[in-house]
Write a structure and sequence with these properties.
The protein is α/β, with parallel strands linked by helices and about 325 residues long. α4 links the parallel β8 and β9. The radius of gyration is 18 Å and the shape is globular.
Length: about 325
């Protein structure tokens, strides 16, 4: 496993990190014992960053993860969770709720500190609510020792620009913007580097688009993106490989992207993902896939309020 620096936090993170959303039965009904084994397998094989949220499985993911890490030496991994989003349409970024959220997460996770706390999907509320309520809470939580570092997460890249204009951040978590079909995350890297901010990339499979299986019914991608991704996946299948392998290798190859989250509740899957990062990438197949995806390259979908769906940093 390779490791890279996460901004100016002083943390060295594995290029592949563990997203614990699957432990909350977000994608399929999961077995708790198998989920716990998956977490242990990930850490034993070199993954040292684990990310979760109270939103995943409506606290189930945190609860199951707590049972897994409660059996481990706390110094073996970096733990991040989130606050502010608690349901499909349930958001609360008030100072009091963010502080209480962390206390609740600490109990579920069976630990006494969080390494990194992210404000979860801030684009769904007016930015002034985040700035006036949640940002002061982050300072208070860091001063109390309950969290070591903090940042924000969201789909629109503008959430990072808007936040950094008023608040220094330690790290940000972005998803669906550094994958085979969308590398627009690179547009914001200079801004993050300028501010010394760490970067965590998530959803290298674009929330299931880069697969021969149909995406979930809730997937917000328009039809042309879904179709192109399906064609790319089918092309890989015809070449005797899984597009997931190429996607994971692609996402972890760029030195500008410190770490990429993958989520599974299956020990065999996490072993496979980790092994892929050590294998050479098929550059010819990569170019063929990029050619298929070129018509939809960097196309995305709207998320949250309109004030977040304008990009001004490029």
């Amino acid at each position: 496993m390779r490791y890279r620096q996460l901004g100016q936090t002083g943390l060295d993170v594995s290029v592949l990190s563990f997203g614990a959303s699957s432990l909350g039965s977000v994608f399929r009904e999961t077995n708790e014992a198998e989920s716990i084994r998956t977490v242990h397998e990930a850490v034993d094989l070199g993954i040292n960053l684990i990310d979760v949220s109270p939103y995943y499985g409506l606290t189930k993911a945190e609860t199951v993860l707590g049972k897994a890490i409660g059996q481990m030496d706390r110094s073996r991994f970096i733990l991040s969770t989130k606050a502010g989003r608690y349901g499909e349409a349930e958001f609360d970024f008030s100072t009091e709720r963010i502080i209480r959220s962390v206390d609740e997460s600490l109990k579920r996770l069976q630990t006494d500190y969080i390494d990194i706390l992210y404000l979860h999907d801030i684009e769904f509320v007016p930015f002034h609510e985040v700035a006036e309520g949640a940002f002061p809470a982050l300072d208070a939580l860091k001063q109390s020792g309950k969290i070591r570092y903090f940042g924000v997460s969201g789909l629109p890249l503008s959430v990072f620009e808007k936040s950094l204009a008023v608040k220094p951040l330690d790290s940000v978590l972005s998803y669906c913007h550094y994958a085979l079909n969308d590398t627009s995350l690179l547009d914001v890297v200079p801004l993050l580097e300028q501010h010394g901010v760490g970067l965590v990339n998530a959803s290298p499979l674009s929330m299931g688009l880069l697969s021969t299986r149909p995406p979930a019914a809730w997937h917000p991608a328009p039809a042309d993106i879904q179709q192109a991704c399906r064609e790319a996946a089918e092309h890989c299948t015809r070449q005797g490989t899984d597009i997931a392998k190429l996607a994971v290798q692609f996402a972890t190859a760029d030195e500008r992207i410190p770490t990429t989250l993958v989520s599974t509740a299956n020990p065999e899957n996490i072993r496979k993902n980790i092994a892929w990062t050590d294998e050479p990438m098929d550059t010819q197949l990569l170019q063929e896939v990029l050619d298929i995806l070129k018509p939809v390259h960097n196309k995305s979908w709207l998320s949250g309020r309109s004030e977040y769906n304008e990009r001004t940093f490029v």
